[in-house]
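Moderator note: this is an archived Q&A kept for reference. The question asked for a predicted structure of one protein chain; the sequence and the answer are reproduced below.
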Amino acid sequence: MEHVKRLLFGSSWFGRVLRILTLLTIFIYPFGWHYKICYIDGISMEPTYDDGQFALEQRVRSLGNDWTPERFDVITIWDKDGDILCKRVIGLPGETIEVKDGLIYIDNILLTDTFGEGRLTYQKFRDYSSNDVAWRIVYDNIPPTKIKSWEIWIIGDNREDSVFGSFPIKEIEGKLVLY
């Protein structure tokens, strides 16, 4: 027992390394399970998040089994190409999304938020329900589309330069909690 005390609390180099490794294990492992540092790549979330900015993401696995995204949550989500997107939740399951003259309507009510800037313009659009990929033209209209029970509709805050559309809820990696 005396040998263990001397090893752990003594001034030997091995004891110091062991103490540092123990502290790292105690603090980093739980943090890594619940949180992740995200790098914002691109301008689609400006002005809320700048290109090259870091943010703290709480992982879905630590949010609980009954967690569901809420409107205006900022999430990270996997797309079909295996890329991580950082976007804002706008449409929820069962709602109807429509875009008229670049403005977003939810169940026939104009979306008014303090986050979004600009109107939807020339953007790549992917609908995971039908696997359609197309380029929308300036202020193109998107007819009323009902969001499936297992999907959400997302877009970046920089509405003029953002991928948007319906994505499966199961593809959400986390929710941004600090930036």
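Archived answer notes: The chain has two domains: 1-34, 40-178.
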